[in-house]
Design brief:
By secondary structure, this protein is α/β, with parallel strands linked by helices. The protein folds into 2 domains: about 200 residues, NAD(P)-binding Rossmann-like Domain (Rossmann fold, 3-Layer(aba) Sandwich), CATH 3.40.50; about 190 residues, Rossmann fold (3-Layer(aba) Sandwich). The protein has 18 helices and 14 strands. The strands form 2 sheets. The chain has an 8-stranded mixed β-sheet, with helices on both faces. The protein has a 6-stranded parallel β-sheet with strand order 11-10-9-12-13-14, sandwiched between helices. α5 packs parallel to α6, α12 packs across α13 and α13 crosses α14. The protein is elongated and about 75 Å long. The mean pLDDT is about 95. The structure holds uridine-5'-diphosphate-xylopyranose (2 copies). One uridine-5'-diphosphate-xylopyranose binds next to α9.
């Protein structure tokens, strides 16, 4: 086994950045060089304002940066100097051509593989960190085989960290998964993780199992959320309480208590993308029943988001036109500034289409990001934003104070489970709202009984609504 002295990671995103920072922290003897095409992102990694918000990340970066962790846009030089190259670029759902809307767009991965082939010499280990369709490694290997002066081993090492808890997940992972063909190459990567992860938690498999396990893990996790969300609709219809049902089933050790929190719908860069990818893969192999089965997880999620928007409109006397709705939270979950596929984007779009005015407060997401998300989702299939849709987006304002967001609002919609939303002074909020005042708790995090006592009409996920009891 050759011991690794220098690592390069292509892609300084939510996955590449924190993962490499942790490797650099735990392995001071290894030089870790993170590269990205995006100069602004690299500048941010080199500054005091990191490009992503992640609890605990600042300390880890501060400890290693300048010592054995560097960030730059010098992709070729970093690849050339490395014994091991991680590919951690984004693999979004294809928006065009064959497989549009489902297949993963592997353009970036392929470009990286070609770049590695072009500038490498000697022997290198290439590690797929990005989530990829099964058998992508085959394509990567074929491209690398064309290099004139270098040889390669390819490994798959999918990331299981969740945003908001990335540092803890990296520090104490349930498992590290490494798939590959060469025992030597696998051993080199095992050796790196073994600096801080107990050996029994480092699983090794063949390449294809590793690639498929990542998709399957995300599909199972998303399926649990869709399952509990499907039952939440039934709870609302019958008078059962979804949190009680979740507790009752979660105490069965075979089911377990985690990932049973009903919500306005899952978001994030991975769940939907990976399931659609799985669906596409099944269809490719003629497994249409299997494809339909997994597709339903995404359909229920879409249903949950649209059910929430419709409930707001219906409850506000069937019209939200020119009414102000206060949205608390925009990120797809708490403790992150990531908004990719956030339910808030979809619910806001639905409300804007009903001509509502929306005022958003999120403690970490910038106004620029919120506007970019809305402009993206409001575009037509040719990528154009009509002046009508732009005028609807102009009905959104973004503020830095939750009380201001709620001022004179007809309703509050809780979109993200930020802890601080539980501690607002809801009597003050209620006094300054249009009456009757409504709360739609898309995360079931507020004290609903107390809100009803203050005078709110409260609607939540999977629970009977509460009328004001003042
Ligand atoms: C990405 C993938 O989306 C996910 O499937 C995978 O599991 C891990 O990598 P993430 O890190 O969240 O997740 O993506 P993102 O934050 O978009 O970062 C990717 C970075 O790669 C961007 O900063 C982008 O500028 C960079 N990039 C992309 C390159 O440097 N070169 C390229 O050719 C393409
Ligand atoms: C996920 C996987 O958990 C992680 O292993 C993988 O590497 C990347 O994808 P992430 O998307 O960062 O991580 O967050 P996660 O905590 O899984 O939440 C995803 C979405 O599901 C969020 O919108 C969250 O609010 C929602 N969710 C999660 C629920 O609605 N209910 C739950 O019980 C759990």
């Amino acid at each position: 086994m050759s011991s690794i002295e220098s690592i390069c990671c292509i892609g300084a995103g939510y996955v590449g950045g924190p993962t490499m920072a942790m490797i650099a922290k735990q392995c001071p003897h290894i030089k870790v060089h993170v590269v990205d095409l995006n100069q602004a992102r690299i500048d941010a990694w080199n500054s005091d304002e990191l490009p992503i918000y992640e609890p605990g990340l600042d300390e880890v970066v501060r400890e290693a940066r300048g010592r054995n962790l560097t960030f730059s846009t010098e992709v070729d030089a970093a690849i050339h100097a490395a014994d091991m190259v991680f590919i951690s670029v984004n693999t979004p759902t294809k928006t065009f051509g064959i497989g549009a809307g489902r297949a993963a767009n592997l353009e970036h991965i392929e470009k990286c593989a070609r770049q590695i082939a072009k500038v490498s010499s000697g022997h290198k280990i290439v590690v797929e960190k990005s989530t990829l369709p099964v058998r992508t490694a085959q394509a990567v290997k074929r491209i690398l085989a064309n290099a004139s002066t270098a040889s390669f081993d390819v490994l798959s090492n999918p990331e299981f960290l969740a945003e908001g808890t990335a540092i803890q997940d990296l520090l104490k992972p349930d498992r590290v998964l490494i798939g590959g063909e060469s025992k030597e190459a696998i051993a080199s990567l095992v050796d790196i993780y073994a600096s801080w992860v107990p050996k029994e938690r480092i699983l090794t498999t063949n390449l294809w199992s590793s690639e498929l396990s990542k998709l399957t893990a995300n599909a199972f996790l998303a399926q649990r959320v869709s399952s509990i969300n499907a039952i939440s609709a039934l709870c609302e219809a019958t008078g059962a309480d979804i949190d009680e049902v979740a507790r009752a089933i979660g105490t069965d050790s075979r089911i377990g208590p985690k990932f049973l929190k009903a919500s306005v719908g899952f978001g994030g860069s991975c769940f939907q993308k990976d399931i659609l990818n799985l669906v596409y893969l099944c269809e490719h192999f003629g497994l249409n029943e299997v494809a339909d089965y997994w597709n339903q997880v995404v359909s229920i999620n879409d249903y949950q988001k649209s059910r929430f928007s419709k409930q707001i409109v219906r409850t506000l006397f069937n019209t939200v036109s020119d009414k102000k709705i206060c949205m608390l939270g925009w990120a797809f979950k708490k403790d992150t500034n990531d908004t990719r596929e956030s339910a808030a984007i979809y619910v806001c779009r639905d409300l804007l289409m009903e001509r509502a005015r929306v005022e958003v407060y999120d403690p970490q997401v910038s106004e620029q990001q919120i506007r970019a998300d809305l402009e993206y989702i409001m575009r037509d299939e040719n990528g154009e934003l009509s002046s009508y849709k732009q005028s609807l987006i102009d009905n959104v304002s973004v503020v830095e104070d939750p009380y201001q967001a709620a001022d004179e609002a007809h309703a509050i919609a809780v979109m993200t489970e930020w802890d601080e939303f539980q501690n607002l002074d809801y009597s003050r909020v209620h006094k300054n709202m249009s009456q009757p005042a409504f709360v739609f708790d898309g995360r079931n995090i507020l004290n609903h009984k107390q809100l009803a006592e203050i005078g709110f009409e409260v609607h939540s996920i999977g629970r009977t609504s509460l009328s004001p009891n003042t």
